[in-house]
Amino acid sequence: MRQFVVIGHDAPTTPDFSLDDLAGAAGRLDVLCRCVTSAFFLSHAIREDVRVHLVLADEYTVTFEGNELRRLNPDERSTAALVRNALEEREEAIGHVPVESSPGVSLTRRGFAATLDDVARGGIVVQLHEDGDPVVDVDPPTDPVFVLSDHHEFSDAETDHIERHAAERLSLGPEPLHADHAITVAHNYLDTDGFERY
Amino acid sequence: MRQFVVIGHDAPTTPDFSLDDLAGAAGRLDVLCRCVTSAFFLSHAIREDVRVHLVLADEYTVTFEGNELRRLNPDERSTAALVRNALEEREEAIGHVPVESSPGVSLTRRGFAATLDDVARGGIVVQLHEDGDPVVDVDPPTDPVFVLSDHHEFSDAETDHIERHAAERLSLGPEPLHADHAITVAHNYLDTDGFERY
């Protein structure tokens, strides 16, 4: 299982946003939607052994479960609609009990720290960092958990929390990447481990 | 200079499409828009030494020039608006003379073969293929040109044309990727050449 936790610092916490302005009024939800697409889509298939957690403004987390997903399309707008549907259920999300809004998509009332604490129980947290070890020099962990941020840097508190959990600190390359591109590169690194002469 | 030629088999050739249905009525223009984003965006910068050519239904080609681009945002909708603006100028595109619709974005009246013939004069065409040599085993070409397709496979005629130009046949990994994800991986492969112990 590969997991990705993506922090949306400005993401909406209510469903009353327009699908026509994801990059503006919807708090850069476009970035989070592309992260979902990068995490799940192969050319003609869905990666079933993947889970994505979108943390919305440190208040809610929307989780996408690869082996249960239906109705996921690769464009930003339709993914944003799934997030919006999940937020419609926010009154039902009580404590840390998730509520499913569509097949494979669920909402939990919790922020980044509680989400990462939970996810870290089921995997190895990898910190992506420009000063980390080059990814090709490291044996890929089983059940990796990658933590990414939207267009903002991690806050100090977020970094502290990641470092508390992180088993490894890796660099994907010399260029700083958007979160969705980092997910694509991370997948490729895991895919190619053991691939022919890789 | 890194160049990417992306074939949009069902892409629109007139500007009368809605930005609200890129994945449907606009012929999967969402894929082409994500290719533009993958090709140009670093975390807080644009890759200036990149050129992208979107071939629209084998009739027009919209070219994005990294070192001249303005007003490019990473979301699909705003990139689609730039394509639509380019198509507004289609009456001005006569012969193979490009017409600029916004800074760094131009439209040419030509299809895939003519575009690739032209682009191949300025770079080394790389064919991406599942049976190609693993990308990490090959020294990156100077001035590579990658050819990609939207959600459809290449036609036989397109494959023939690519093979006529291609100097190398590379595989990016064992999993078949969406075109925009392939661009991200190709960039990473080029970025990491010579990076520390890579």
Largest sheet of chain A: 8 strands, mixed
Q: What is the overall number of helices of chain A? A: 5
Order of helices and strands of chain A: EHEEEEHEEHEEHEH
Helix/sheet category of chain A: alpha/beta
Task: Summarize it.
The structure is a homodimer of 198-residue chains. The first copy, chain A, is 29% helix and 27% strand.
Describe it:
- Chain A has 198 residues and is of the alpha/beta class.
- Chain A folds into two domains: 111 residues, Alpha/beta knot (3-Layer(aba) Sandwich), CATH 3.40.1280.10; 70 residues, no CATH class.
- In chain A, 29% of the residues lie in helices and 27% in strands.
- Chain A is built from five helices and ten strands.
- In chain A, the strands form two sheets. In chain A, strands 6-7-5-4-1-9-8-10 form an eight-stranded mixed sheet, with helices on both faces.
- The longest helix of chain A is centred in the C-terminal third of the chain and has 14 residues.
- Chain A is globular and about 45 Å long.
- The model of chain A has no long low-confidence stretch (mean pLDDT 94).
- Chains A and B meet through helix 1, strand 2, helix 2 and helix 5 of A and helix 1, strand 2, helix 2 and helix 5 of B.
Task: List the SSEs and their pairings.
2 copies of one chain form a homodimer.
Chain A: E1 2-8, H1 29-40, E2 41-42, E3 45-46, E4 50-56, E5 60-65, H2 76-88, E6 99-102, E7 105-108, H3 112-120, E8 124-134, E9 144-149, H4 156-165, E10 168-171, H5 179-192
Parallel strand pairs in A: 1-4, 1-9, 8-9, 8-10
Antiparallel strand pairs in A: 2-3, 4-5, 5-7, 6-7
